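does this look right to u?? fe (ii) ion version
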Amino acid sequence: MIDLHTHILPGIDDGAATLAESRAIAERAVVDGITAVAATPHVRDDYPTTPEEMESRVATLREDFAQKGIPLEVHFGGELDLGALGGLTPDDLRRFSLAQTGRYVLVEFPYRGWPLGLERIAFELRAAGLTCLLAHPERNPEVKAAPERLEPLVRSGTLVQVTAASLDGRLGRATQQAAKRLFELRLAHVLASDAHSPALREMGLADAVATLDDHGLATFLTEDAPAAILEGAELDPPPPATGPRRKRFGLF
Ligand SMILES: [Fe+2]
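got this back:
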C-alpha cells in the first residue's frame, strides 16, 4: 500500500519530533504493509514549513532508512492550509506537490465551517495545472451532516482523502458514518494514515481496509489511486460497489 498523508518528517510540525520517531513511524508503516509514503508536513500559520525544510528532511530520511535497511520510499509533499495557499509561489506549489510532479497537492480541509472559498481556490489551482486532494473532509461537521455536499467539487475534478482512523471508528461515530458515506457515494479516492506518531492507533491502514469489505475499492484507495498520484498520472474513477463478500462456508 501507499500512504499519501503522513507527518513523518522530524522536528517540523506536530508529527515526529525526532529522527528516532520518524524511524518508528516508518517501521510501523512497513509492518502495516506500506511500501511508500508521502511526507506531508503542515504548511500553515503555526507551522510555516518552507519547501527547503521539507526537501532536506526528506533527503535525511531517505539516507537514514537506506542505512538502517527500512524498506520504505519517502516522497516529497506538504499538507497545505487553505489560508497559506495564497502566500505560495508557483514554484513553492510545485515543490510541495505530491512527489513533486506538479500535478496533485494535498490541501487541509478545515475542521470547522464550510470553506466558502474552496471552489474558487480549486478552480484557480486547476487553471495552474494542479488538482486538489482534500485531506480528511469527513472530520468536518458540515461534511458529517451532509457528505454529499462534496459532490460538486469532486465532479469538477477535486479528489478526497479519507483518514484510516475515521473509518474504523476511532474518531467517533459521526466521523465514521461520514467516511462510510463518502465511500458509498464514490466521493473518496485515497485512504491514508495522517500518522503523527508511531502509536498503533494512527497507523492502521490495513485494519481500515479490512472494514471496507470491498476488495476492489480497497485496492483502488490504497494502491492504484495513490500510485497514479505519485506518478502525476490521470486517475481512473473509483470502481463500482461490489457488495458484501459472500460467506464461503455459511450454512444459509
Ligand atoms: Fe495531516
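The first helix runs from residue 19 to 32. idk if thats expected tbh
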